[in-house]
Amino acid sequence: MSSPATDARTAHAAGVARLLASYRAAGPSASVRLAKPTSNLFRTRTKTNARGLETSGLTGVLAVDPTAHTADVGGMCTYEDLVAATLPHGLAPLVVPQLKTITLGGAVTGLGIESTSFRNGLPHESVLDLDILTGAGELVRVSPGERGDLYRAFPNSYGTLGYAVRLRIKLEPVKPFVALRHLRFHSIPDLIVTMDRIIQTGELHGIHVDYLDGVVFSAEESYLCVGTQTAASGAVSDYTGQQMYYRSLQHDNGVKEDRLTIHDYLWRWDTDWFWCSEGFGAQRPTIRRLWPRSLRRSSFYSTLMRYEQRFQIGNRIERLGGRPPRERVVQDVEVPIERSAEFLDWFLCTVPIQPIWLCPLRLRSDDGWPLYPIKPQRSYVNIGFWSTVPAGSADGQTNRLIEGKVSELQGHKSLYSDSYYSREEFYELYGGETYATVKTRYDPDSRLLDLYAKAVQRR
């Protein structure tokens, strides 16, 4: 009888064969793309005739090594499946992005972040080596010492340099529970000062900090959420039912304590897609009681959102009420920590969106990553905001304002959603000549879209 690990590797090998066969079947000059059943991108795309490459069989966890603290996974493996395989060994990925259906390949070729990023950086920094299907149709092994140009350019390339087929990543030991302290602030600059101190020292009031993020409800109400792993047993909260995690943070003054299992902590944001489930009525008590628990998750809300975008349901409702259409403002930006209070003050005065997520970030690598050139040895705050605002007179008016402000403050913006940069601005911000050189080397016939066409032109 074969073992689960052997079965996973057999399925993966068959999946790789199907992927390569589908690439070859597309013809020598045809454009190609992945045929993905799910996506965590939030930008609309024009219809394409590009051949969809077969990805079945690339979703498994191939091996977890409890001694070496590593995992080998397929490029389409979700973090939900990976965490389910690692937690029984007391291990977790160094960074676990917030949504269950984010894939390893997606988090590496795009960007993922979470509350360990203040000490562990970004997901791609934990990659030891990976196999990539390049635009030239070659399956190549990539690591810091092997095809290092592609290894460093791959993060934030969004499938324009190739697709991750297999990845080996570092894991770290974790304990069964997370003890939480939610610190209330009445001033955002005060919150930023405390956040910076935790990043620098790794502790709060003499207690080690493993996890750090925050939420801004208004200029006068904001919270830092500080987590510490613990093996001590005791009562834990459950935010997969009627109670909502983000509402549990709120209190008048001081510190509020809570506890979660490590599993529920890692997925604390998924049940309500942070707070965006409110847009579907899932936070109304009557509807919430009737909403099946199995569908109270980010992947289902994302499906509903795609239907809304396809049929323009929201704008139709606005028109019926005599109101202008809405502009989608779904973005994550990185701002240097010393400028983040300035950005938040501007944002709260300019853009009518709350709550706002805060997640500190400090790269692990001293070398930097050319397609997302935030500086090593410098602290940033990821600021996430996801909603709509009344549309202005120009296309993407509010998003353009945000892009300008982020650049003014020497920050950077993720590309998973709508972007409006000119080609010249984009070239300066996202890799420039480095990207062009690597693109030519590994996709000489431009079988894959280039990054500007994909991220800005929505092709």
Helical coverage, percent range: 25-40%
Give the uncertain stretches in residue-range form.
none
* CATH C-level class of the largest domain: Alpha Beta
Which structural category do the helix and sheet elements fall into? Answer: alpha+beta
Q: Which band does the percent of strand residues land in?
A: 15-25%
Measured distance between first and last alpha carbons: 47 Å
Which strand order does the major sheet show?
A: 14-9-13-12-16-17-15-18
Please state the CA-atom Rg, rounded to the nearest Å. 22 Å
* CATH fold type of the largest domain: Uridine Diphospho-n-acetylenolpyruvylglucosamine Reductase, domain 3
What characteristics describe this protein?
single chain, 459 residues, alpha+beta, Uridine Diphospho-n-acetylenolpyruvylglucosamine Reductase, domain 3, Alpha-Beta Plaits, 3 domains, 8-stranded antiparallel sheet, 6-stranded antiparallel sheet, 16 helices, globular
Question: Can you lay out the helices and strands and say which pair or pack?
Answer:
Elements lengths: L3 H22 L6 E3 L16 E3 L7 E5 L4 E5 L4 H8 L4 E3 L10 H6 L7 H4 L6 E8 L4 E4 L5 H6 L8 E12 L3 E9 L2 H14 L1 E2 L2 E2 L2 E8 L2 E10 L14 H4 L6 E7 H5 L18 H6 L7 H14 L1 H8 L5 E11 H14 L5 E6 L18 E11 L6 H12 L3 E2 L9 H7 L2 H11 L8 H5 L4
Parallel strand pairs: 1-2
Antiparallel strand pairs: 3-4, 4-8, 5-8, 6-7, 6-8, 9-13, 9-14, 10-11, 12-13, 12-16, 15-17, 15-18, 16-17
Q: What this model shows, in words?
A:
- With 459 residues, this protein is α+β, with helices and mostly antiparallel strands.
- The chain has three domains: 4-174, Uridine Diphospho-n-acetylenolpyruvylglucosamine Reductase, domain 3, CATH 3.30.465.10; 177-268, no CATH class; 312-420, Alpha-Beta Plaits, CATH 3.30.70.
- The chain is 32% helix and 24% strand.
- It has helices spanning 4-25, 79-86, 104-109, 117-120, 148-153, 188-201, 245-248, 262-266, 285-290, 298-311, 313-320, 337-350, 397-408, 423-429, 432-442, 451-455; strands at residues 32-34, 51-53, 61-65, 70-74, 91-93, 127-134, 139-142, 162-173, 177-185, 203-204, 207-208, 211-218, 221-230, 255-261, 326-336, 356-361, 380-390, 412-413.
- The mean pLDDT is 93.
